[in-house]
Description:
By secondary structure, this protein is mostly helical.
Amino acid sequence: MSKVTSFHSTEILALTPTEIEERIEELLVERNRGELQPEGYFYDGIWYPSETQEKASCCFNINHKLELYDHCKTENHLKILAVETLIGSVKNFV
Ligand SMILES: [Zn+2]
């Protein structure tokens, strides 16, 4: 089984709110230990978050790309990302 590195629209609907909270906590710990990286890529020393799996509304007013990388390891970002992934999944469902 491959490691879950972010939130996925198809599976998040199957999780209970408690499981989503646990997933946020897991990702927070693993990203801050450096075991997992936020979804995205480096190009010419600048980090770009994945448009589909990482970028959330909280990221838009952060300009410096490396600051954005650190931001994507915060609890606030992971919570907003989880909620927005969930909302996106519900919209695709109806
Ligand atoms: Zn963010």
